[in-house]
């Protein structure tokens, strides 16, 4: 049995300036996006992307991730808490970013970028989709370092069962690492390989929706469920699982309707 290391959330202290691990994970995600985007553009010159376009897209994407991710956390998961503590809404350095909110924010950013460049939405999203999972992986590493989003209770016989002392003394699944492996590495490998060859417009985006939705849905069975607005609905599903259902359904529709 393992015990969570209880990392100091501050990676570097420079006088009054505290650089947190959570923020560094976001920086790593953005750097990975740039590097993978340039590599993807070189291996698929037929897509017509260059460095300037990738840099501009990252700028819009960062706004979408931060604004959408935070608003998603506030509205989807803990509206009561944040409406009672409104100043906490802007405290993104403390953690608390919703993927589904960030996803909606990114969709808005992609739509704006598509309009600006004269491309279709799916041409943009097909290029972006393979670049996203590694960033998600870094985000889950940040969750693990912060000791947040811990897992459900696990068998003490599970070799990697972990105690999170800030929660209790019960062995739990390190679900942050499960998600880093699934929604991060596994989804990246799937999309990176699939996008290496020309596909019908929209296919790569659809595969992302199905892949992420299915992997996140499965991971939720090992993760302690977040509070949320869907907790009173039928069936024992978490908020994130309910949000994943339309992702998978829409992804399947887009995938099979596009030749």
Automatic annotation (TrEMBL):
<protein>
    <recommendedName>
        <fullName>Phosphatidylglycerol--prolipoprotein diacylglyceryl transferase</fullName>
        <ecNumber>2.5.1.145</ecNumber>
    </recommendedName>
</protein>
<comment type="similarity">
    <text>Belongs to the Lgt family.</text>
</comment>
<keyword id="KW-1003">Cell membrane</keyword>
<feature type="transmembrane region" description="Helical">
    <location>
        <begin position="201"/>
        <end position="219"/>
    </location>
</feature>
<dbReference type="InterPro" id="IPR001640">
    <property type="entry name" value="Lgt"/>
</dbReference>
<feature type="transmembrane region" description="Helical">
    <location>
        <begin position="127"/>
        <end position="145"/>
    </location>
</feature>
<feature type="transmembrane region" description="Helical">
    <location>
        <begin position="177"/>
        <end position="194"/>
    </location>
</feature>
<comment type="pathway">
    <text>Protein modification; lipoprotein biosynthesis (diacylglyceryl transfer).</text>
</comment>
<feature type="transmembrane region" description="Helical">
    <location>
        <begin position="20"/>
        <end position="37"/>
    </location>
</feature>
<comment type="function">
    <text>Catalyzes the transfer of the diacylglyceryl group from phosphatidylglycerol to the sulfhydryl group of the N-terminal cysteine of a prolipoprotein, the first step in the formation of mature lipoproteins.</text>
</comment>
<dbReference type="GO" id="GO:0005886">
    <property type="term" value="C:plasma membrane"/>
</dbReference>
<feature type="transmembrane region" description="Helical">
    <location>
        <begin position="97"/>
        <end position="115"/>
    </location>
</feature>
<feature type="transmembrane region" description="Helical">
    <location>
        <begin position="57"/>
        <end position="77"/>
    </location>
</feature>
<keyword id="KW-0808">Transferase</keyword>
<keyword id="KW-0812">Transmembrane</keyword>
<keyword id="KW-0449">Lipoprotein</keyword>
<feature type="transmembrane region" description="Helical">
    <location>
        <begin position="239"/>
        <end position="256"/>
    </location>
</feature>
<dbReference type="GO" id="GO:0042158">
    <property type="term" value="P:lipoprotein biosynthetic process"/>
</dbReference>
<keyword id="KW-1133">Transmembrane helix</keyword>
<feature type="binding site">
    <location>
        <position position="140"/>
    </location>
    <ligand>
        <name>a 1,2-diacyl-sn-glycero-3-phospho-(1'-sn-glycerol)</name>
    </ligand>
</feature>
<dbReference type="Pfam" id="PF01790">
    <property type="entry name" value="LGT"/>
</dbReference>
<keyword id="KW-0472">Membrane</keyword>
<dbReference type="GO" id="GO:0008961">
    <property type="term" value="F:phosphatidylglycerol-prolipoprotein diacylglyceryl transferase activity"/>
</dbReference>
């Amino acid at each position: 049995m393992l015990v969570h290391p209880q990392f100091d959330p501050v990676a570097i202290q420079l006088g009054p300036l505290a650089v947190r691990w959570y923020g560094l994970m976001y920086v790593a995600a953005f750097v990975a996006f740039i590097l993978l985007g340039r590599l993807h553009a070189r291996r698929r010159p037929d897509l017509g992307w260059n460095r300037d376009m990738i840099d501009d897209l990252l700028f819009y994407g960062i706004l979408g991730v931060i604004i959408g991710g935070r608003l998603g956390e506030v509205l989807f998961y803990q509206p009561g808490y944040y409406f009672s503590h409104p100043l906490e809404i802007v405290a993104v350095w403390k953690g608390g970013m919703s993927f589904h909110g960030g996803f909606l924010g990114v969709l808005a950013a992609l739509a704006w970028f598509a309009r600006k460049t004269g491309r279709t939405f799916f041409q943009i999203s097909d290029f972006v989709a393979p670049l996203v999972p590694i960033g998600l992986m870094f985000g889950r590493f940040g969750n693990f370092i912060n000791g947040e989003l811990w897992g459900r209770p696990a068998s003490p016989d599970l070799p990697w069962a972990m105690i999170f002392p800030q929660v209790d003394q019960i062995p739990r699944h390190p679900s942050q690492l499960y998600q880093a492996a699934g929604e991060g590495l596994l989804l990246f490998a799937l999309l990176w390989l699939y996008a290496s060859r020309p596909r019908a417009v929209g296919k790569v985006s659809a595969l992302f929706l199905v892949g992420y939705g299915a992997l996140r849905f499965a991971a939720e069975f090992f993760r302690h469920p977040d509070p949320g607005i869907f907790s009173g609905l039928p069936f024992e599903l978490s908020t994130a699982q309910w949000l994943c259902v339309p992702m998978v359904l829409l992804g399947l529709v887009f995938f099979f309707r596009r030749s």
